Write a sequence for this structure.
């Protein structure tokens, strides 16, 4: 066009005429560039989503060892916190109760399938933390620990986040456990037995509890609640006031978890269960590392093949233009004009490849996201760093290849 000639001169027009005259070579070069862009971005996107999906299936444990017992008290289990290799410990008691939640307060998925003004029976996991651990957790979420100890009504911290698998779509979904606010009170019940005739539990009132704080952060040892469940955290002093059965747990962090487990098992206490989370975490890390080596190795291989393919296509194309380039030099095309022509051709090839390659890559990435979306539910995000990297590399590879081919022709 006249604009191209005005901006870049007659050299640019001559370079563009070559692409029009040798359409087959031009299409082959362009196709090679586009395929390289799509392959690189698709594999990078696939790798990122694979890692994200793997992370969603793994629990983020904040401890190395979990000790539990159906026979020992929390004070008896606390003796294991004094072992040499133990660096930190949290002592907890857990009670399983129920509460009634109004329709408007229930989690969104329950309301979608429920009846207005209906009351939902929620399972409540009431967990206590020892004094030091509760103080640290209160500080972490920005509340005053004393508000949860000196109060007429027992105060609890609500962990208002749940993760569950949608039974219809089979997707993993993250949402609020309950729609409530600070200051709201709930009656807690314990299930005594099952009523066979009416097919419902026989419950006994335990205590009224008040929501003192709401957070989506979880303390050490807290397991994610499911749909229709809620996690409440109280101080040990509050838990001691509840006249119900409690299960003690001890969460340990150690310099050497395997040696610590061996030391615990040496005590020959058959009524103590030890779960070595450290070993589970190591296996998950190995799996993640193996996955990263495979995917990044594949990306490197694809990148090298793509660069070699582009290099071969462009240098062959330039080599086949020897007569044309010699003729242009013989009729007065200066070295400066010669490089100007090749520079414009590089820009043209790069822009044309990106014009086709990027939209096509985005379509492929979106199709991948939709296929992964049948199992995992998270927002579609473009790999912007990879896209910027591709844009820079395309121009760099095309320009470098052309200059290399020209230097060969000059000889």
């Amino acid at each position: 066009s006249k604009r191209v000639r005005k901006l870049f001169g007659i050299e640019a027009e001559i370079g563009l005429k070559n692409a029009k005259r040798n359409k087959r070579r031009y299409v082959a070069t362009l196709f090679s560039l586009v395929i390289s862009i799509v392959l690189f971005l698709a594999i990078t996107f696939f790798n990122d989503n694979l890692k994200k999906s793997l992370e969603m299936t793994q629990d983020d444990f904040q401890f190395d060892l979990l000790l539990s017992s159906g026979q020992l008290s929390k004070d008896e289990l606390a003796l294991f916190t004094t072992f040499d290799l133990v660096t930190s410990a949290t002592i907890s008691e857990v009670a399983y109760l129920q509460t009634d939640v109004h329709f408007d307060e229930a989690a969104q998925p329950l309301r979608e399938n429920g009846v207005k003004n209906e009351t939902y029976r929620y399972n409540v996991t009431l967990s206590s933390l020892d004094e030091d651990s509760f103080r640290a957790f209160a500080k972490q979420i920005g509340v005053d620990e004393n508000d949860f100890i000196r109060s007429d009504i027992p105060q609890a911290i609500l962990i208002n986040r749940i993760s569950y698998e949608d039974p219809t779509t089979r997707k993993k979904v993250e949402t609020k456990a309950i729609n409530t606010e600070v200051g709201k009170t709930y009656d807690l019940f314990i299930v005594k037995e099952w009523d066979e005739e009416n097919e419902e539990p026989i419950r006994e009132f335990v205590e009224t509890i008040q929501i003192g704080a709401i957070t989506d952060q979880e303390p050490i040892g807290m397991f994610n609640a499911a749909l229709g469940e809620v996690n409440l955290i109280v101080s040990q002093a509050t838990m001691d006031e509840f006249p119900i059965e409690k299960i003690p747990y001890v969460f340990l962090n150690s310099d050497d978890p395997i040696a610590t487990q061996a030391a615990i098992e040496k005590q020959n206490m058959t009524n103590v269960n030890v779960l070595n989370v450290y070993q589970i975490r190591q296996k998950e890390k190995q799996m993640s590392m193996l996955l990263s080596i495979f995917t990044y190795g594949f990306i490197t291989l694809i990148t090298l093949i793509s660069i070699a393919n582009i290099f071969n296509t462009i240098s062959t194309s330039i080599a086949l233009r020897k007569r044309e380039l010699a003729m242009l030099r013989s009729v007065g095309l200066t070295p400066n004009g010669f490089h100007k022509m090749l520079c414009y051709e590089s820009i043209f090839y790069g822009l044309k490849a990106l014009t086709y390659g990027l939209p096509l890559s985005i379509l492929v990435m979106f199709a991948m996201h939709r296929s992964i979306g049948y199992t995992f539910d998270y927002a579609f995000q473009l790999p912007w760093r990879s896209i910027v990297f591709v844009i820079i590399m395309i121009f760099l590879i095309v320009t470098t290849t052309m200059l290399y081919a020209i230097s060969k022709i000059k000889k």
Notes: The chain has a mean pLDDT of 82.
